[in-house]
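User: quick one, fold this
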Amino acid sequence: MPAGRPERRREAKAKAMAKRSETRHADFGFERVSEAEKDRRVAGVFDSVAARYDLMNDLMSFGLHRAWKRFAVAVCGLRPGMRVLDLAGGTGDLSALVYSEVGAGGRIVLADINSSMLVRGRERLLDRGMLPRVQVARADAERLPFLDRSFDCVIMAFGLRNVTRKEVALAAIFRTLRPGGRLVVLEFSTAAGRVLRACYDAYSFKLLPALGRLVAGDEGSYRYLAESIRMHPDQSMLREMFEAAGFERCTFFNLTSGVVAVHRGYRLR
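Assistant:
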């Protein structure tokens, strides 16, 4: 597709704006570090937690993450034959849920920037007999190596908050969607009410790192995960970021009183 197309211009503009801003710095939890340092340290977090990632998800969410993911897939509106990108898909939970929705004629790409997570995901999908209908690709959300208008749906669970330049990633995702395609993002968000937020803060900053130390042998990575949730845009701000990237009919659904939210936006043209 020619570089002059609107989606290419939008993606280039997002990159240029990110470069001009305080640019070369980003949030790593509550720390302010260089973008390169954030990329390196986030990679280290997921290298460290990959082996116990699924177990920790069950423990941290009391199993609720499974229901949240099923809801996210449900709002994708998938049909047989669709092409779906499971971005930052890690160990493949969403790819497994999408598998039956798109049928034999569908195509799923499980993509993640972290090789350790992808190895775990590929092993799990292989055990379930889902390869080669699910393809596995190492990909940076800010520099997607896929053709323009390749997918009917991009779905992303608990990955966007770890992306250094979210606006660049959203523009890249928009480019890869076909007209009529949709982006669905499941992410931790801002809980409703002071009491719930206070309880959630106590859980996140005290119990979660302790759980990480006991189960995964890594307190620091889970402290970062708690901090990254607090630094992530709230529901309204993330919806505005969707719109700035070109998405239309943007909306979000609060789950568990806003502890997590599912955002959805469409590329209509």
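User: anything notable?
Assistant: Residues 6-266 form a domain with the Rossmann fold fold (CATH 3.40.50.150).
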